[in-house]
From TrEMBL:
<feature type="domain" description="SRCR">
    <location>
        <begin position="24"/>
        <end position="130"/>
    </location>
</feature>
<feature type="disulfide bond">
    <location>
        <begin position="404"/>
        <end position="414"/>
    </location>
</feature>
<keyword id="KW-1015">Disulfide bond</keyword>
<feature type="signal peptide">
    <location>
        <begin position="1"/>
        <end position="21"/>
    </location>
</feature>
<protein>
    <submittedName>
        <fullName>Uncharacterized protein</fullName>
    </submittedName>
</protein>
<feature type="domain" description="Ig-like">
    <location>
        <begin position="529"/>
        <end position="615"/>
    </location>
</feature>
<keyword id="KW-0675">Receptor</keyword>
<dbReference type="GO" id="GO:0016020">
    <property type="term" value="C:membrane"/>
</dbReference>
<feature type="disulfide bond">
    <location>
        <begin position="99"/>
        <end position="109"/>
    </location>
</feature>
<keyword id="KW-0732">Signal</keyword>
<feature type="domain" description="SRCR">
    <location>
        <begin position="334"/>
        <end position="432"/>
    </location>
</feature>
<keyword id="KW-0677">Repeat</keyword>
<keyword id="KW-0325">Glycoprotein</keyword>
<dbReference type="Pfam" id="PF00530">
    <property type="entry name" value="SRCR"/>
</dbReference>
<dbReference type="InterPro" id="IPR036772">
    <property type="entry name" value="SRCR-like_dom_sf"/>
</dbReference>
<feature type="disulfide bond">
    <location>
        <begin position="251"/>
        <end position="315"/>
    </location>
</feature>
<feature type="disulfide bond">
    <location>
        <begin position="295"/>
        <end position="305"/>
    </location>
</feature>
Length: 739
């Protein structure tokens, strides 16, 4: 029983050890394909007890590296790398690893035990694994993997043709040329499954099937040994060739259009090609693989042409003699891009799905005619314009110039010659240019100091015109909005008083055509409040005489409506008149004494605005005649000082009262109060004054009122001396009573 339990424990521990240690990986390294071989290298890490750890380089040899690479599915060369991948951040878990190379798991090799070591991270070991792949017929056929000493076919290759060719270091052809179905069990093969994200083919999941059925058959691929690089399109570039896992350039000695045509046909681009001095590498150190190539032009591949032996040449070391090729499309599809209308834009050639701009160097009106006629048979007029006003989705430039005479049916029929065209030299054309329709959006009225936008829109027409505003303030901000078939110029304006009635003009101009300039103008209407006071004219009024009060203003837009209102008094009529430059109101009234010191107010209002009302009050001043004149006297007694009294009430202006006796004005003095004016004449009567007539004359200077005359006949009395004192006292009392 004891030995049975011990056996089970040992078995479980040993089995756990084998299971958990059967994972290895290479980190902080690189993976790439070189000369037909996949290479994967990095710092070695082993997984055990849910932990990844590094391995020390003590006694670690190529045989141990072979076991690691076998665990990763690599069956080529295996190399132990010391001093390159040191200083890892995982703890060291294995040391003194010794393998004979036949183990299936690194944990089956000799070592000191998990976690036991006497190393530092300066001794972390790295491993390089290699795996060879190929196509069964050099550059085409089935994919095969090299295992031990033979190549084994690969089944279920779910990589695209492009990926397969790139993974094998060849040029893609983007197509599978055939599939050989498997209808029965075959000898061993490798079943492979890729996600498409792998950097090298060896990173795909692989299973070796010793005997079985390849369900999806064996896919055959075709890859190329030549390609064009450093070009502006897929139709041109520097010729690069592949040979025995190496890639290099071709020297241009003896290379011409025949040789270029063979390359273009081999690449499936076109029937004809042209040799070009463009597209050189210009880097130091040449890697010319072929030189002195001589073709008749009928060969299927330049490798079938006469040439020097491989790697033999007499060319310079700075790639100044690289072969450049421009393949001439057998058919060209034309298009325009970036225009506001379908008949304008950057002139382009479609090479497959690749847009390629036509060079502006040497592109004349005759070339544009042929281009536009090929796009539209009804084209009657063309213009060549600057390509800077249009946008292009590509910077590629077709490196040939056209030299049409204008009669060709297609632009490919025009003579062409190779050029070196910079990427910013794009030509733009307008087929059948047309004038746009122009509309203005100018709000009316505008309110002073309230920002507003004026919009000028040019719709249709080609090419797209320049558009701008000229308005009363030159410092207004303007911006342009361009959309399909339309361009707008928006003027941001803050209206001022001086801009009222100013004319704002939108200019639409085609700089590269003979079209006349279009001008659209609109006169601004700007509302602003009255800045000046109302001008009120109120004369001095005269009682019972018809009079007028006027109110006028010549400021503000719109001119205000003005009218009169009087508080507590009637008036005859009010009339208001608004002319083109002023507004006025007239108040008609026939005043009475009650109108004096009353207030009438002129009011102005700018209707259809939010401006505040304005007003100007005026106090009426009415002239009116005296109301009553009373004359009297104290007791007239001979020898006693007596007084004649003239009392006047009412009147504006205040009346002036004087006494006249015997036709002569007498000296008198006035006493004025709020209620009346008194004129007093003082004298000592004699008996001669008896029955004398004296008159109080009342006048209102500065008026047309008639003088008022009030007659007083004097009655003088003689008294005894004894009563004289009593009469003096009586006269004084009577005088104060009257005044």
């Amino acid at each position: 029983m004891y030995w049975t339990i011990l056996y089970i424990v040992v078995y479980l521990v040993f089995n756990r050890l084998l299971t958990d240690a059967s994972k290895v990986r290479l980190v902080d390294g690189k993976s790439f394909h070189e000369n037909g071989v996949d290479i994967y290298e990095g710092r070695l890490q082993v997984f055990f007890y849910n932990e990844w750890g590094n391995v020390c380089d003590d006694e670690f040899t190529q045989r141990s590296a072979k076991v690691v690479c076998g665990m990763l599915g690599f069956y080529g060369n295996a190399i132990a790398i010391a001093n390159t991948y040191k200083n890892g951040n995982k703890r060291i878990v294995l040391d003194n690893v010794k393998c004979n190379g036949r183990e299936k798991d690194i944990m089956n090799c000799q070592h000191q035990g998990w976690g036991t070591h006497d190393c530092s991270h300066e001794e972390d070991i790295g491993v390089r694994c290699e795996q060879t792949w190929r196509l069964s017929k050099s550059t085409e056929g089935f994919v095969e993997i090299h295992i031990i000493d033979s190549y084994i076919p690969v089944c279920n290759t779910n990589y695209s043709g492009k990926k397969i060719c790139q993974s094998l270091g060849l040029v893609e052809s983007n197509k599978i040329v055939g599939v050989v179905p498997a209808t029965s069990k075959t000898r061993r093969f490798v079943d492979i499954s890729c996600t498409g994200e792998e950097q090298i083919l060896s990173q795909c999941t692989r299973t070796i099937i010793k005997y079985g059925v390849c369900e999806n058959g064996l896919s055959a691929f075709k890859c190329l040994t030549q390609k064009l690089t450093n070009g502006t399109t897929s139709y041109n570039g520097r010729l690069e060739i592949y040979h025995e896992g190496r890639k290099g350039s071709v020297c241009d000695d003896g290379f011409g259009d025949n040789e270029a045509s063979v390359v273009c046909r081999y690449l499936g681009l076109s029937w004809n090609g042209r040799f070009s001095y463009e597209f050189k590498d210009w880097t130091e150190g040449s890697n010319y693989l072929l030189d002195d190539i001589d073709c008749t032009g009928r060969e299927a591949n330049i490798l079938s042409c006469k040439h020097t032996s491989w790697n033999s040449h007499n060319c310079d070391q700075k790639h100044r003699e690289d072969v450049g090729i421009q393949c001439l499309p057998d058919e060209i599809t034309l298009t325009l891009e970036g225009g506001n209308n379908e008949n304008e834009g950057i002139a382009q050639i479609l090479l497959g799905k690749q847009r390629t701009n036509i060079c502006s160097l040497g592109f004349e009106r005759e070339d544009a005619f042929v281009f536009c006629r090929e796009l539209n048979n009804d084209c009657r007029n063309v213009i060549v314009v600057s390509g800077t006003q249009y946008s292009s989705s590509t910077e590629y430039i077709y490196q040939e110039a056209f030299h049409c005479n204008g009669s060709e049916a297609k632009i490919i029929n025009c003579p062409r010659y190779s050029i070196k065209c910079p990427s910013d030299s794009k030509v733009a054309v307008v087929c059948d240019p047309t004038l746009p329709s122009v509309t203005l959006e100018v709000p009316s009225p505008l309110i002073v100091n309230e920002p507003v936008n004026l919009t000028c829109t040019a719709t249709g027409g080609s090419p797209s015109p320049n558009i701008w505003w000229n308005c009363c303030n030159n410092n207004n901000r303007t911006y342009v909005i361009q959309s399909e078939n339309q361009i707008k110029s928006v003027l941001e304006i803050i209206p001022s008083r001086r801009c009222n009635a100013a004319t704002c003009t939108c200019f639409v101009h085609h700089t590269e055509t003979t079209f006349p300039e279009i001008q659209k103008a609109e006169q601004l209407v700007i509302y602003y409040p009255v800045r000046d006071d109302l001008n009120v004219t109120a004369p001095i009024l005269t009682e019972h005489q018809s009079s007028i009060l006027t109110c006028e203003v010549s400021d503000g837009n719109p001119l205000p409506d003005i009218w009169w209102t009087c508080s507590g008094i009637p008036y005859d009529n009010v009339t208001s008149v608004v002319t083109h430059n002023s507004s006025s109101s007239t108040l008609y009234l026939t005043p009475t004494v009650d109108y004096h010191n009353k207030t009438c107010t002129c009011i102005g209002r700018q209707f259809n605005t939010t401006f505040e009302d304005i007003s100007e009050p005026t106090v009426l001043h009415v002239l009116y005649s005296v109301n009553e004149v009373e004359v009297s006297s104290t007791n007239l007694i001979v020898g006693i000082r007596s007084y004649l009294i003239c009392r006047v009430t009412g009147g504006n202006p205040e009346p002036v009262a004087k006494w006249i006796c015997d036709g002569k004005f007498q000296k008198s003095y006035e006493i004025r109060s709020l209620e009346a004016v008194l004129a007093l004449m003082s004298f000592i009567p004699t008996s001669a004054h008896h029955d004398q007539q004296c008159t109080c004359v009342v006048s209102q200077p500065g008026t047309n009122f008639k003088e008022v005359h009030q007659l007083l006949v004097l009655r003088v009395t003689s008294l005894p001396t004894s009563t004289t004192k009593e009469m003096i006292t009586g006269n004084t009392t009577e005088l104060w009573s009257n005044t």
